[in-house]
Amino acid sequence: MKYFLIAGEASGDLHASYLMAALRQQDPTAEFRFFGGNEMAAAAGVPPLRHYSTLAYMGFIQVALHLRTILRGLKECRIAIRQWQPDCVILVDYPGFNLKMAKYVHDEALCPAFYYIAPKAWAWKEGRVKQIRRYVSHIFSILPFEIPFYQDKHHCPITYVGNPSVDEIAQYTPPPPEAAAPVIALLPGSRTAEIKGNLRRMYQAARPFAARGYRIAVAAAPSQPRALYETLCPEAEIVEGQTFRLLSQATAALVTSGTATLETALFGVPQVACYYVWGGALALWVRRRLLKVPFITLPNLICGQEIIPELIASDTHPDCIRRHLEAILPGGPQREAQLQGYTLLRHRLGGPGAARRCAEALLTQFRESFSK
């Protein structure tokens, strides 16, 4: 079969590469064309038709400034699909671009479009579900709580296939334990605005624990200059490109909301989620009005209850963060309860094998519904 995949940022590129490898195991005749990145290129053995870095713009201003480039990319993608005539298109996250391509292949009756890692319509922009239901043949979900949202509420065909983070952590081999001081890990995100907003507050909250013998270590994003971290937390240990190694050694963590909260939980590290946004109480009000879900972190959403504390906007004052951090350190009143919550999380996520299960389900779906 011929598969055309579209991923628009680094994590999508990585997860799509695992899916491509799994498809090739299930389908030795598999051929790939794609908009993506280096990981997908390694899996496919061919370069991307367009690298995601040339189209990875987020936010209204960035999109407006680069609209001509984005429109050119959409046109190139349409032409590539029409000329190559794939058996199916696989969309990986990146909804602003991918939903347009789903509409195109549907309206032109070219081939089915499948979604792997669905848009987070359960959190915001719920109106996108109408497009997904109309243009996407099947969703392969990596989050179990998406099933009732997409299937029960909106009647979209969907299958939960497991979560790639479970696979990545199961495959990780930690280094031998070091005879060193216990570690408080700081994971402030990867975007510049996130780091500037969160890291200084995290560091100020954690710094007093250095007097108790804790090492304060920050996970640095490969895309960011070291000087940024040295300015915001001058006495912290800076760990570049080794987040899993840091988590494997950590006693507790302060984490900016995102996939990192899930990875931290799967490593069994008690954590406090911190997400500073400008605006204080106003930002909290806006969040309640715009977000459709009760939590912002994946562990809490998956478990349906507050497993980890979520500190947002004005709650991210260093004193507030410090109190919550104290409670999850060894001997703290919330540490054991959080670790028990992680047991529920692992149960709901299931075991490794997300890409393999997705490949099997996709091929079954295709053969039952679309094979000629």
TL;DR of this structure?
48% of the residues lie in helices and 16% in strands.
What does this structure look like?
- With 372 residues, the protein is α/β, with parallel strands linked by helices.
- The chain folds into two domains: 2-162 and 353-369, Glycogen Phosphorylase B (Rossmann fold, 3-Layer(aba) Sandwich), CATH 3.40.50.2000; 176-349, 3-Layer(aba) Sandwich (Rossmann fold).
- Helix content is 48%, strand content 16%.
- Strands 3-2-1-4-5-6-7 form a seven-stranded parallel beta sheet, with helices on both faces.
- α1 links the parallel β1 (2-7) and β2.
- The protein is elongated and about 65 Å long.
- 42% of the residues are buried.
The CATH topology of the largest domain is given as Rossmann fold
- Secondary-structure-derived class: alpha/beta
Mean pLDDT across every amino acid position: 90
Task: Estimate what percentage of residues fall within beta strands.
Answer: 15-25%
Instruction: State the total count of DSSP E strands.
Output: 13
| Share in helix | 40-55%
CATH class of the largest domain: Alpha Beta
Q: Which residue ranges are poorly predicted, with pLDDT under 50 across at least 5 consecutive positions? A: none
Provide the CATH architecture of the largest domain: 3-Layer(aba) Sandwich
Largest sheet: 7 strands, parallel
The total number of structural domains is 2
CATH superfamily of the largest domain: Glycogen Phosphorylase B
Cα shape: elongated
Distance between the termini: 12 Å
Trace the largest sheet across and list its strands: 3-2-1-4-5-6-7
Order of helices and strands: EHEHEHHEHEHEHEHEHEHEHEHEHHEHHH
What value does the Rg take, in angstroms?
Answer: 21 Å
